[in-house]
């Protein structure tokens, strides 16, 4: 009878019979809790980075979008000379830094070129973007607010390099057809 009372006191509890299983169970729980903690830390860090750039640079940033878990962040920077679009993707949501970064700049006052192809004429009348690799590199290795400050400071010099080399001034047909295929024009 006494043995029955001891067993009935543990109803709903699945005892681990061997000490090795107990250790494995505890280690598995600890790893799970650590993983959830890392995931939560990365989410809070990404959210805070977005909050800080909105707070510090909100007057310069237009069209800020982000996903609920902040694993996708996009925003545009407008000034009188260009429009810059920043797109960040976090392939590993346990990380604070993005895995995929794209920064494109569109000159606002670029000369428009006429093309003979009707499929491409719509695209050619628009400004052609320049990929800003210096900005992409900064966003891959620094937090969003730090990288943003570096991008804004270095952008005039970097864009002048592109314009001095003639990038954006001449539009090759192969580049236009590549961009047209991307946009299904």
TrEMBL record:
This is Uncharacterized protein. It comes from Brassica carinata (Ethiopian mustard). Its main location: nucleus. PANTHER family: CENTROMERE PROTEIN O, INNER KINETOCHORE SUBUNIT MAL2. Keywords: Centromere, Chromosome, Nucleus. Transmembrane segments: none annotated. InterPro entries: CENP-O. Belongs to the CENP-O/MCM21 family. It comes from the Eukaryota. GO terms for cellular component: Mis6-Sim4 complex; nucleus. Pfam families: CENP-O. It is found in: Chromosome, Centromere; Nucleus.
């Amino acid at each position: 009878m006494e043995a029955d009372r001891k067993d009935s006191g543990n109803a709903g509890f699945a005892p681990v019979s061997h000490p090795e299983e107990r250790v494995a169970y505890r280690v598995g729980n600890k790893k799970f809790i650590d993983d959830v903690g890392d995931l939560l830390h990365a989410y809070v860090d990404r959210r805070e980075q977005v909050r800080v750039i909105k707070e510090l640079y909100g007057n310069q940033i237009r069209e800020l979008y982000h996903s609920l878990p902040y694993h996708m962040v996009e925003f545009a920077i407008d000034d009188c000379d260009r429009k810059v679009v920043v797109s960040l993707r976090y392939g590993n949501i346990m990380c604070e830094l993005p895995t995929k970064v794209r920064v494109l700049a569109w000159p606002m006052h670029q000369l428009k070129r006429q093309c003979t192809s009707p499929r491409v004429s719509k695209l050619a009348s628009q400004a052609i973007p320049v990929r800003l690799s210096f900005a992409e590199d900064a966003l891959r290795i620094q937090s969003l607010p730090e990288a943003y400050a570096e991008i804004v400071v270095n952008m005039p010099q970097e864009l002048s390099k592109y314009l001095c080399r003639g990038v954006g001034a001449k539009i090759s047909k192969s580049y236009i057809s590549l961009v047209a295929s991307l946009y299904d024009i």
